[in-house]
């Protein structure tokens, strides 16, 4: 997958928690479950914004001859 500048990547652990909270909120329709989902999402985004960026160099393209 080719990522464009500014796209966010969420870890597998955070994705599992987000899905679990979203399913719980959708099934219960309770406001506190939606609030918990929103709080967790903002926690994930704040963590991403406050961490130092990590860059990986792209592999060199080999020319076929």
Order of helices and strands: HH
- The overall average pLDDT, rounded, is 84
Q: Can you tell me the residue ranges where pLDDT is under 50 for at least 5 consecutive residues?
A: none
Helix content: 55-70%
Query: What's the total count of β strands?
Result: 0
By DSSP (H or I, 4+ residues per run), the number of helices equals 2
Morphology call: elongated
Strand proportion, as a percent range, falls in under 5%
**What gap, in angstroms, lies between the N and C termini?**
26 Å
Folded structure, characterized:
The structure is a single chain. This protein is mainly α. The protein has a domain at 12-50. 57% of the residues lie in helices and 0% in strands. It contains 2 helices and no strands. It has helices at 12-28, 31-50. Helix 1 packs antiparallel against helix 2. The longest helix has 20 residues, at 31-50. The mean pLDDT is 84.
Describe the secondary structure blueprint for this structure.
Blueprint (H helix, E strand, L loop, with lengths): L11 H17 L2 H20 L15
Helix pairs in contact: 1-2
In short:
By secondary structure, the chain is mainly alpha-helical. Helices cover 57% and strands 0% of the residues.
């Amino acid at each position: 997958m080719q990522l464009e500048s500014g796209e966010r990547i969420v870890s597998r652990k955070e994705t599992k928690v987000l899905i679990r909270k979203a399913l719980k909120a959708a099934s219960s329709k309770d406001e506190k479950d939606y609030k918990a989902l929103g709080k967790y999402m903002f926690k994930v985004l704040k963590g991403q914004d406050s961490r130092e960026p990590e860059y990986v160099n792209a592999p060199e393209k080999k020319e076929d001859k």
